[in-house]
Design goal:
Length: 177
């Protein structure tokens, strides 16, 4: 496309990319992509603030939204625990997630990380640190292609995985200290 288009068109395209990059940042609450302080989901008062769906990347928010099965809010971690790549919990937005649960009256957290090694390790870690009174932690059902990314799952499959989510055991109080 670039080769066929004239110089003027290429320049306009380049400017549009630069403008988009300058305009788009991260939502201050959930770290989804956003043009303002809050993303469209966080700005929508009709969303159920008691439920947070935890995902790895902003593209996963788009995948879950496509299912139309979820009416709560999101929290974007910015990746998954991957020790080989030097990504530990402290590199992800986990502290921010814990702070939100305390301040926003959250009653359920759905762990919607990818069904691969890093996504499962992240879900396991989160299930241990999310041991709080009155909080249900659930994991999306298996049935998604293992090793795949959420973004490649079709709406129906991902919708079913969300619907069929199971409560996970959080760490007992003695272990959580
Ligand atoms: Zn947001």
């Amino acid at each position: 496309h670039l080769l066929k288009s004239d110089a003027e068109e290429s320049r306009r395209l380049a400017e549009a990319v630069v403008a988009a990059k300058e305009r788009v940042g991260f939502c201050q609450r959930c770290f989804n992509l956003s043009e303002g302080d809050l993303c469209p989901v966080c700005s929508d008062s009709r969303r159920d603030g008691h439920v947070i769906c935890v995902v790895e990347e902003p593209r996963d928010v788009i995948a879950v939204e496509r299912t139309r099965e979820f009416r709560g809010n999101y929290h974007v971690l910015g990746g998954a625990i991957d020790h080989l790549q030097g990504v530990g919990p402290e590199q992800l937005k986990i502290r921010e997630l814990l702070a939100r649960i305390g301040s926003e009256g959250v009653t359920e957290v759905i762990l919607c990380t990818n069904p691969n090694l890093e996504g499962e390790a992240t879900a396991l870690y989160l299930s241990k640190v999310l041991s709080m009174p009155g909080l249900t932690v659930s994991r999306i059902a298996s049935g998604l292609p293992v090793g795949g990314d959420l973004e490649y799952a079709d709406e129906l499959t991902l919708g079913r995985a969300l619907e069929g989510r199971r409560t996970v055991e959080t760490a007992p109080a003695s272990e959580a200290v």
